[in-house]
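>> received
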Amino acid sequence: MTKLFASMVAGACLAASCVAFADDADPTTQERVGYALSRARSAAQGDKKALASLQTDAAIPDAAAQFGLGEYYVFTGDYPQSITWFQKSASQKFAGGYYGLGKAYEAGQGVPTDYAQAMRLFLQATELPEAEMRIGDLYARGWGVQEDDAQTATWYRKAAEAGSVKAQVLLGAAYERQFWHLKQDYPQALQWYLKAADLGDAGGELFAGLLYEQPGPLQDYGQAAQWLQKASQQGVADAQYNLGVLYSTGNGVSVDAGKAVQQFQMAANQGQPQAQIRLAQSFATGTGVPADPFRAYEWFTIAEPSTTEGDPDYVLTEKTLRDLERQMNPAQISRAKQAAAEWRDAHRDVKSPDDSGFTF
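>> returned
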């Protein structure tokens, strides 16, 4: 099963828009859930007015506000209280209440872990794309039900078609990499990536850009650069690294060694090992940045633990380190190693790209 993208859709309101409701139409369940979730996040961040409005509306009783109050207590770590409010919401047969309770039983937050019960609750919340995704997750893992790739694909497709950007990106990945026994289909994969990308999703932007880079009939470096730029601006390390490579090669953009170094630097600071090596190379050769053996040695040393003996990056790193040592005195080498150790200590809690939610 794939790693799911927790950070990829952080801030997405259950794939619902969190804008004001149209004056001429009643809000959908998805919109009500999205608005309640938005208020819950604001309240958890210290917005007293948002909390007061949730509490007032929940007392009416408004089922969406009750769901939102439950989410507020999830955000603040008071799981027993969250269960109380999710139950109140569910007692009004509101999809958000069922969904909140399903998450609680899936994660064991405020109630014992019970995947079968989580499945039953999610099935009562299928008005929400996120609930459909959770059903797909359970089938993918075989939690509470028998593992079933066909059911997994079915439920992810339902969520994707209902507008879940997270599901759209995962469905795109399924077509690209043949998850769930789906036949490899790059145009289908690109279609789903672009649906998410068009909604501003960083994962969709990244994977659309990467697919446009690949050799074949879809290859379009201009499009690749466009989407990688958008993902880079959202802080995606893999996008920054790949955009840096495009600036280095001139594929899809004009060759610009300085811009390449900027992208490598941003990605390197997030722990992207390939970017760290490319940044070190730039300092070693003076490409796009003044030559600086000290900085080059520091970044090669930072990247070294991420390389594996026998792979090209490992051989390159070891060779370049030895070359740099011939340009430096022992005191400089010692200071560079110390600087690398301090960088690692300072960035120990920074998620690597493998944990960022963008790796399958």
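>> DSSP finds 18 helices and no strands in the chain.
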